[in-house]
Amino acid sequence: MGCNEKIIQHCKVVSETALDIAESILESGTIIDLKLVRLGGLLHDVGRSITSDINHGVEGARLLREKGFPENLAKIAERHVGAGIPRKEAKILGLPAKDFLPQTLEEKIVCYADKLVSGKQVTDIKYVINDFAIKLGPDHPSIERIKKLHTEIMSITNS
């Protein structure tokens, strides 16, 4: 499983950012698996060792399963793309016909942290929404999904 240095650095920053968010949530009294969040952040883009397209989440999950990693880690890789992808969009995009929406709190945190990290730079939600609008169009449904994810995460952090 070999990713280039740029991807590795991105994953390290995503892991650190996700862990910061998770620790804040833990302080608010919510139970969370910090180890899973840390590892999920580090491995969420492992599929980029195979492809850099939208399929990298599916490929990453496949790789992790083949290598014997736990299913909850594979799900983080599989469900982090965009702000999650519902079944209908997945089919249109050529992905397997199923939901790729983050379900667990750990999946949501890694997905959210990944959106906040551009390369190695931690940004903010305004940057993310603007970036999505530029790349996907201002009315793309993923913009509402990232806003919803942001609201959910912020509502349970100790900030």
Describe the structure.
The chain is mainly α. It has one domain (5-156): Hypothetical protein af1432 (Orthogonal Bundle), CATH 1.10.3210.10. 62% of the residues lie in helices and 3% in strands. The chain has 8 helices and 2 strands; from the N terminus they run H-H-H-H-H-H-E-E-H-H. It has helices at 5-27, 34-43, 56-66, 71-79, 87-92, 105-116, 125-136, 141-156; strands at 117-118, 121-122. Strands 1-2 form a two-stranded antiparallel ribbon. Helix 1 (5-27) crosses helix 6 (105-116) and helix 2 (34-43) crosses helix 4 (71-79). The radius of gyration is 15 Å and the shape is globular. The N and C termini lie far apart (36 Å). The mean pLDDT is 95.
Any chance you could write out the topology, listing elements then pairs?
Blueprint: H1 5-27, H2 34-43, H3 56-66, H4 71-79, H5 87-92, H6 105-116, E1 117-118, E2 121-122, H7 125-136, H8 141-156
Helix pairs in contact: 1-2, 1-6, 2-4, 2-6, 3-4, 4-6, 6-8, 7-8
